[in-house]
Specification:
The chain has 120 residues and is α+β, with helices and mostly antiparallel strands. The chain has one domain. Strands 2-1-3 form a three-stranded antiparallel β-sheet, sandwiched between helices. A three-stranded antiparallel β-sheet has the order 4-5-6. A hairpin with a 2-residue loop joins strand 4 and strand 5. Helix 3 runs parallel beside helix 4.
Length: 120
C-alpha cells in the first residue's frame, strides 16, 4: 500500500473510537504503533507499508497493561481517569501520575518497549 492508498483506507475504516494505528512494512519485518493523526501527518505519498490495524483507547490500554503488569494502573476518580506508572529512571524508581490520554498511553508503551514493540 502506498501513502495515498493508506490514508484513504484509514479514513474508510476509522471511527470516533480509534486513536491508534499499528502498521507493518511489506517485508513484515517491522511493526510500529502511533497516534493516527501523527501517522497521517508524517505519511508521504511515496511511503509504502504492508498493512495496518486501528486500535481504540481500550485496546491499546490492554497492550500496555499486559506489557507492564503491575507497573501501570488506571485510576478512576471524580477528577477523571489517570494512569499511575511506576518505572525505573536514571536516578531510581519513579512514580508518575498522568492524565489518561492517547498520548500518555503511547508514551508509556514506547518507554516500556524501548521503542521496539516486536522484541517485547
Amino acid at each position: 500500500m502506498r501513502g495515498m492508498e493508506v490514508i484513504q483506507a484509514l479514513d474508510k475504516r476509522r471511527n470516533d473510537e480509534h486513536c491508534f494505528v499499528t502498521w507493518w512494512r511489506k517485508e513484515n519485518d517491522f511493526l510500529d504503533y502511533d497516534l493516527i493523526d501523527r501517522f497521517v501527518d508524517t505519511m508521504r505519498l511515496s511511503d509504502e507499508i504492508g498493512g495496518f490495524d486501528l486500535l481504540t483507547m481500550d485496546e491499546m490500554w490492554e497492550k500496555v497493561a499486559q506489557l507492564s503488569g503491575t507497573r501501570v494502573t488506571l485510576v478512576h476518580d471524580k477528577d477523571g481517569d489517570r494512569v499511575k506508572w511506576v518505572h525505573k529512571g536514571k536516578t531510581g524508581t519513579h512514580v508518575n501520575e498522568c492524565a489518561y490520554t492517547p498520548e500518555t498511553v503511547l508514551e508509556i508503551f514506547d518507554v516500556e518497549t524501548k521503542g521496539n514493540p516486536v522484541d517485547s
